[in-house]
Amino acid sequence: MRKNIVAGNWKMNKTLQEGLELAKDVNSRVSGIAPKCQIVLGTPFIHITEVVKTVDSAKISVAAQNCADKASGAYTGETSAAMIQSTGAKYVILGHSERRAYYGETAEILKEKTDLALENGLLPIFCIGEVLSERESNSHFDVVKKQISESLFHLSAEVFGKIVLAYEPVWAIGTGKTASSDQAQEMHAFIRSLLVEKYGKEVADNTSILYGGSCNAGNAKELFANADVDGGLIGGASLKAEDFLAIITAF
Ligand code: PEP
């Protein structure tokens, strides 16, 4: 059966020292509980190695927030999937709307990144989601279908089984405006129906689909109670251990 996952996305926040303090704080709070979900910390690259050493790997995994679309070589400033894997990170967040919008990440680039991540043993947390004008023009289902099919549907069923999806309506990210529980469930059920169509029921049932977009301690319980919402990708509320723990314990 699919896993429940609560994944933090620290984005470009926290110095190394601040990040380690946060990881230690999350780790010590989690040590006293039996979480009903896998916990992931999506840290900046430079934090990964130290955070991996700091947390209890039985309960907490570490994710990178991006990887290069090339395997290795003369690509100044880039970080390859193989490098990330060598740090002990287990996941990599790919296709976040901020990377699509600010760094020109296209469906084709994301396909390359996904393939390299998988070839190097990383589990992609693949983000999809519509902008406000797309929801208002009722094209949000088509947009999400296109994002998934163009970057992921070349994968075999076996390989697709390693993908975690994160539905993040762009209008809800960092805005304090959350999708309603019904809107989240409607889109998650639609995404799962696409997976049934493409890969069959078993793969669809085993795929974790996370919700992201202003998820917090106050709304996590209601969002996670939906049949097709298997956890959250959490930005702002992952930057304080207390807030993040309140989301983890919403399961
Ligand atoms: C995100 O960026 O993945 C995210 C969900 O951010 P926030 O929770 O701050 O909306």
Can you give a write-up of this model?
By secondary structure, the chain is an alpha/beta fold. The chain has helices at residues 16-31, 48-54, 81-87, 97-102, 107-119, 132-136, 140-152, 157-160, 181-199, 201-206, 220-224, 241-248, and strands at residues 5-9, 38-42, 60-64, 91-94, 123-128, 164-167, 209-212, 231-234. It has an eight-stranded parallel barrel with strand order 1-2-3-4-5-6-7-8, surrounded by five helices. Helix 1 links the parallel strand 1 (5-9) and strand 2. The longest helix is centred in the last third of the chain and has 19 residues, at 181-199. The chain is globular, with a radius of gyration of 17 Å. The protein binds phosphoenolpyruvate (PEP). Phosphoenolpyruvate binds at residues 9, 168, 173-174, 212-215, 233-237.
Note the topology.
Blueprint: E1 5-9, H1 16-31, E2 38-42, H2 48-54, E3 60-64, H3 81-87, E4 91-94, H4 97-102, H5 107-119, E5 123-128, H6 132-136, H7 140-152, H8 157-160, E6 164-167, H9 181-199, H10 201-206, E7 209-212, H11 220-224, E8 231-234, H12 241-248
Parallel strand pairs: 1-2, 1-8, 2-3, 3-4, 4-5, 5-6, 6-7, 7-8
Helix pairs in contact: 1-12, 5-7
The site of phosphoenolpyruvate has 13 residues, from strand 8.
